[in-house]
Amino acid sequence: MTRIACTAMFTLALAVPCLGAGSEMRFPPPEFESGYQFPETARPPTARPVVHEYIDVALLAVVLLLASYLILQRRSRRAIFALMIAALLYFGFWRDGCICPIGAIQNVTLTAFDSTYAIPLAAAAFFVIPLAFTLFHGRIFCGAACPLGAIQDVVLIHPLRVPHWLESGLRLLAYTYLGAGVLFAAIGGTFLICRYDPFVGFFRMTGNWNILILGASLLAIGLFVGRPYCRFLCPYGVILRNLSRLSKRRVTITPTECITCRLCEDACPFGAIRTPTEDWPEGEYQIAKRRLAFFLVLLPILIAAGGWGGYALKERLARMHPRVRTAERVFLEETGQVTGTTNASDAFRTTGQASAMLYQDATAIRSRFALGGALLGGFVGLVAGGKLIALSVRRRRAEYEADPADCLACGRCYQYCPKEQERRKQRRDARSGRGNR
Amino acid sequence: MANKEDVTRRKFLREGLWGACLAGAGTAAGLSVARNNQDNTVWQIDPYKCIACGNCATYCVLEQSAVKCIQAYAICGYCDLCTGYLVPEPKALDTGAENELCPTGAIKRTYVEDPYYEYTIDEALCNGCGKCVKGCVAFGNGSLFLQVRHDRCLNCNECAIAAACPSQAFTRVPARQPYLLKGVDAKE
């Protein structure tokens, strides 16, 4: 067929709408003479029934109840490990890592800021249930229920000690990540925490290459540094660690009374065991007091500096929002600074909206990011200042204890405690005594 | 135990803060329940916003995208020169592979009667690239359109395609009505 004939056919095809009926339908549906019947447009399969989500919620509650018992009452690392693996298999590999409480932070935030968004009940439940458990029992969610924690826990072979100041410093990343995740969920644009979820690709056995590489490197670090995501990045962990400070019950290394035998000192791969402290030596006390005063003065300065820094980032933050990106592109095209169009600018033009409206939207979003960026920066400054202050005060401790905030309730330390061994022996004896009778 | 002189200021603050946190979590839960419409939401493409850019085929977290093409027969023109089936300026109006637009050959063309041909999507082959959709919307009736298939979709909290969609065509829709079908109104 020659090109001319083809072009003629195209012209004919385009001419038909003038004769045809609708503006949408260029060609009227044909009237068949052969008795042809329209095939039924196959009804695509429906979504997963909601009841599955409720099963997930119920299972989460069961896992957390069981974890409470195993961690606080039974004190058995092996049982905790088994539960953790079960949770990893179900919430991770079977349910493909979605939904999880870490991402649910954003759903809850979006509910608060977007009146048109109706949060799925399961997402709300996944957010709240671990929080409530943490207020009563500490971070048992991290210890036995979280699939992201579990996948890191199983690769940990040779834990290295991270210095306390470095750990505190790196933890700023998690606070920043939480702040940024909330900011983007509130203003719109993206669910940052879900987009950069490092392990979900492993659960699904497929995914974006960059994220898979990120996940693999975190696991590689996790061989030597226990649970790096949990300690330095996890935004939900930030909430849990602070709630855990208030919890009614928590992990105690010894079941009865600490005899300060130091056997548990190196038991924790996450650096959560605090050694007994004494008062400041006389000379150092004055220096420490002056240091504390300095940091207290520094706190508002850090907040202001952080706020200013966050405000300065507003353009970059705003560019994460697709509407702003489109507006910038359309502006460049309309002022002739670039030639050609992108998919986004084409899509915008097909909507027939005036570009003035687009610019107006973009300006509004930018101003929201200016405020949000300043708040985020201020928050980071506050946390940094708070950490400096916390590092320069010394709490008096008579025993070896698990720091309630840092402890991930994995149960590794129990077996190191001679008092615990004594308890186990008693229990064994009691059981065999009963068996003999 | 209770009157062990330890209702100190620190303990009082702790208890207060604990109660406040529990109340906060409760409020969050309560507000969420109040806002909730008892239904889950799923991701779907608004076919009238979709510009068939091709991102659906590549950005989905699944190796083979959850998005597939749907043919709304009721609004199909049954054209011989189908711009959703044939490449621009085809060598011949037939089923030759060199004439087909679809990279996976997922569209079946069958003769109905002169001059009409029926076009059917083989969903096992469709990869959701939207090449046919683009052609059909540009020159035809727009009976071909893309939809997220919920038997495949993992319903990620943030859909990776939605994040990459240039026309913001992805929306959260109630799970009870998970599809936005073209041509359903035309048929009824």
Keywords:
heterodimer; A: 437 residues; mainly alpha; 2 domains; two-stranded antiparallel sheet; 19 helices; flat; disordered N terminus; B: 188 residues; alpha+beta; 5 helices; 27% helix; elongated
List the helices and strands and how they pair.
The complex is a heterodimer of chains A (437) and B (188).
Chain A: H1 3-19, H2 50-74, H3 77-94, H4 101-113, H5 121-137, H6 140-145, H7 147-155, H8 164-187, H9 192-195, H10 200-204, H11 209-222, H12 228-232, H13 235-244, E1 273-274, H14 282-312, H15 314-318, H16 322-334, H17 343-350, H18 355-392, E2 401-402, H19 418-436
Antiparallel strand pairs in A: 1-2
Chain B: H1 9-35, E1 41-45, H2 55-59, E2 67-71, E3 107-113, E4 116-121, H3 131-139, E5 144-148, H4 160-164, E6 170-174, H5 184-187
Care to describe what's here?
The complex is a heterodimer of chains A (437) and B (188). In chain A, α2 (50-74) packs antiparallel against α3 (77-94), α4 packs across α8 and α16 crosses α18. Helices cover 64% and strands 1% of the residues of chain A. In chain A, strands 1-2 form a two-stranded antiparallel ribbon. Chain A is built from 19 helices and 2 strands. Residues 1-23 of chain A have low confidence and may be disordered. Chain A has 437 residues and is mainly alpha-helical. Chain A has 2 domains: 54-277 and 399-419, no CATH class; 282-392, no CATH class. With 188 residues, chain B is an alpha+beta fold. Chain B has 2 domains: 1-36; 41-187, no CATH class. Chain B is built from 5 helices and 6 strands. Chain B has helices spanning 9-35, 55-59, 131-139, 160-164, 184-187; strands at residues 41-45, 67-71, 107-113, 116-121, 144-148, 170-174. In chain B, the strands form 3 sheets. Chain B has a two-stranded antiparallel ribbon. Chain B has a two-stranded antiparallel sheet with strand order 2-5. In chain B, strands 3-4 form a two-stranded antiparallel ribbon. Chain B is elongated, with a radius of gyration of 26 Å. Chain B starts with 8 loop residues before the first helix and ends with a helix. The mean pLDDT of chain B is 87. Classes of the chains: A mainly alpha (437), B alpha+beta (188). Chains A and B meet through α1, α4, α5, α10 and α16 of A and α1 and β4 of B.
